[in-house]
What we know:
The protein is mainly alpha-helical. It has helices spanning 5-12, 28-44, 47-61, 63-67, 79-88, 98-114, 119-126, 129-166, 177-201, 205-226, 240-248, 259-266, 272-296.
Amino acid sequence: MTSSAPAAAAAVAPVDDRLPRTPVAVSRAEAFRRACRYEWRHLEGLRSTWILLGVVAVLSLLTGITVLLDLDKDRPVSASTMADVIAWTPLATQVPVLCFFLLVLGTGPVSTDLVRGGARTTWLAVNGRGTAYAAKCLVGFLAAAATAAASALLGALSSSAVLAVSGAPQPAWGGVVVPALRFTLWMGCWALLCLALVSLVRSRIIPVLVLCMWPLIVERLVGGALGYLPGLDGVGKWLPFAAGRAMLTDVSAYPADDRPFAQALVGSHLSSGSATLLFCLYTAVIAAAGCWAYCRRDAKAG
């Protein structure tokens, strides 16, 4: 009798109507929302994320100091010059320095999965590889874009304060808005490029080296070499980061005397609008390739 008591108790135990008796199907939209929340919580839970954002904030606040280097109190700073100060300071000749800080945010989500063995846990938690990759892209894009927007805002406030204290006239800040938006979009695309390259090569170190060396040195060399091949003269001006530099720097806004030097630094004759479309197209193609690799390659066991 005593051995059958638990079974009898279980048989008469009341059923909780709040618990689903059959598995509940989750829509793709709900699965994607959960995946984005999963990625965001993972990102904000890392100490390195907040250290990185703190460093970016400090450097952005120091942007105003660079305005003093070429300050002319008798002539206002042009909007194009101020836009370049916000985007490129501290000065880097090929890519904005903010890119090197955002490498941490961009390469982290995928490398944690594929390199460190957490992929299967992620796929189970967010209901599929494609959903996981899409969520990483969206969260990565928004995090990088938000960081760039905050950096641009802090840099503008810092520069405005320095100009006010020094008694110099303020630039036409309305003309800085559109370049700042392009800068924000550029950084969002940079995060997608980081994600995609880690997915393609299943490594974190190699994509970091590629993203550091390609825009700084290799692309210039490739563009120059292609110029010696019949029919390929000028192709270097259409390469990804040549378009990216043209996206960030509107050479047509410079005074006529300064345009040749600015054009040489940019390395592309594309207008900022055309360059923006081309750079976004490059990003979309590489991100799609990264999605293919992420969804089809196996991962290390956790």
